[in-house]
Protein: Putative cytoplasmic protein YjbR
Organism: Shimwellia blattae
Amino acid sequence: MTHSELLQYCMAKPGAQQSVHSDWKATQIKVADVLFAMVHSVNDRPAVSLKTSPELADLLRQNHADVFPSAYLNKSCWSTLYLDGPLPDSRIYALVNTSWQQALALVPENKRRTLNS
């Protein structure tokens, strides 16, 4: 998977907006100002940072060498994973969905309703 393929998938989510975080050299994807994905490079490899439950983050890190704690975000629930590693694209898309749903849950209900309109 490439950066552009992942960005395209993220931007198709209702309410998704992207911005550049120049200090981190990353593209941040947010829903109503709540971060759900950060697309960047790590060790010259395409990567994305996504939010999960702490339990899922631990499980992913134990089972996949290409998944590790995020450098700039809360390490208990934000993991970075390589897009060009052995993790199947379908699993990466599922993790994007999980991260987007967690971000959406933090958005006030009145704003959430307008996203689906």
Notes: Strands lie at 16-21, 26-31, 34-42, 45-51, 67-69, 78-82. Residues 2 and 8 are 10 Å apart (CA to CA). DSSP finds four helices and six strands in the chain. The chain has one domain: 3-107.
